[in-house]
């Protein structure tokens, strides 16, 4: 149980940082990116399962995987 709690809490920080920095990473790419798919995205204001759907829609795989891991960690924590 302690391992699940530690995992769930430790995953929150990298997930938040990834969501915050991903939009700037998109701007850095070759040819840049349009604002709709980069700087105007805000994954923090969404409920996490909806941010997974939005990340998949814009093909931001790192955000989708990170948010999925956070959701799975939260599910495990709530079951325990």
Write the layout of secondary structure elements.
Blueprint: H1 2-28, H2 48-57, H3 61-79
Helix pairs in contact: 1-3, 2-3
Keywords:
80 residues; elongated
Number of individual domains: 1
Percentage of residues in strands: under 5%
Question: H/E series, N to C?
Answer: HHH
Count up the helices. 3
Sequence stretches where pLDDT stays below 50 over 5 or more residues: none
Distance between the termini: 7 Å
Question: How would you describe the shape?
Answer: elongated
Mean pLDDT level: 82
Biggest β-sheet description: none
**Helix fraction bin:** over 70%
Rg result: 14 Å
Structural class label:
mainly alpha
Q: Could you give the count of β-strands?
A: 0
Description:
The protein is mostly helical and 80 residues long. The protein has one domain. 70% of the residues lie in helices and 0% in strands. The protein is built from 3 helices and no strands. The protein is elongated.
Task: Write a brief structural summary.
This protein has 80 residues and is mainly α. The chain contains 3 helices and no strands. The longest helix has 27 residues, at 2-28.
């Amino acid at each position: 149980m302690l391992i699940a709690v530690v995992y769930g809490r430790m995953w929150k920080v990298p997930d938040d940082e990834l969501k915050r920095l991903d939009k700037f990473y998109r701007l850095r790419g070759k040819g840049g990116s349009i604002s709709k798919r980069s700087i105007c995205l805000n994954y923090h204001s969404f409920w996490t399962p909806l941010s997974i759907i939005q990340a998949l829609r814009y093909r931001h795989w790192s955000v989708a995987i990170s948010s999925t891991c956070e959701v799975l960690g939260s599910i495990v924590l709530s079951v325990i």
